[in-house]
Specification:
- The protein is an all-alpha fold and about 210 residues long.
- It is built from 10 helices and no strands.
- It is globular and about 50 Å long.
């Protein structure tokens, strides 16, 4: 338990030092949920959505916190909004998970639609980035080569655009290493780094993309 509390303290500091770091708030919310601090997790997830309202997985976790707090009306409102956001973006896994929660609460599901309409108009590059928070839309460009010499690198090459990779590599990964003081030569440091990278690219929620 002390290790969990230490990690909560780390991410609380990260979120405090960089209030616009949506992944810091998101990870803090996850850890608070794990520690059964659902009220504080709600605040972290709400802050995440203020920064990145299209982060569909957050609506699911926020609603689960509301349910733990027996705030069913807030959960239903959150799930309906999150379902619409996930459906619009084509984020099938969080959409379906929220659909199950809505059904369990006796709510009628909105009609799902195939998300074929891109955010932008005009011609595009033809490459679709699968990162849930990608802002490039039809302008997304594929990496010129796998950025890592392993299966993860190939997965990044096939599913993540150049802009999202550069944001991780040049900005977010540096924050993760420095602010969490990760020692990548240790098993714990590498696992924490990998977990944060997976969450950044949406690999955990999208499975095989």
């Amino acid at each position: 338990m002390s290790q969990l509390r230490d990690r909560i303290a780390q991410f609380r500091k990260m979120a405090g030092d960089d209030p616009e770091n949506e992944l810091g708030h998101f990870r803090l919310g996850q850890l608070l949920m794990e520690d059964n601090q659902f009220g504080e997790a709600v605040a972290s997830f709400q802050r995440t959505l203020m920064i990145t309202p299209q982060f569909s997985k957050v609506y699911q976790l926020l609603a689960e916190c509301f349910l733990k707090l027996e705030k069913n009306d807030d959960a239903i409102e959150t799930l309906k909004k999150g379902y619409a956001v996930a459906d619009e973006r084509g984020d099938k896994m969080p959409r379906d998970a929220m659909g199950i929660l809505l059904s369990n609460l006796g709510e009628v599901l909105p009609d799902a639609k195939v998300a074929e309409v891109e955010e932008d108009t005009g011609p595009g590059t033809g490459f679709k980035c699968h990162r849930p928070m990608c802002a490039s839309g039809k302008r997304a460009k594929q990496l010129t080569a796998p950025p890592l010499p392993d299966a993860v690198g190939m997965r990044l090459y096939e599913t993540v655009c150049t802009d999202c990779w550069n944001d991780w590599f040049k900005n977010q990964s540096v924050k993760v290493i420095n602010e969490l003081r990760l020692d990548l030569s240790t098993e714990f440091g590498q696992k924490e780094y990998d977990k944060y990278m997976n969450e950044f690219f949406g690999f955990d929620e999208e499975g095989g993309n």
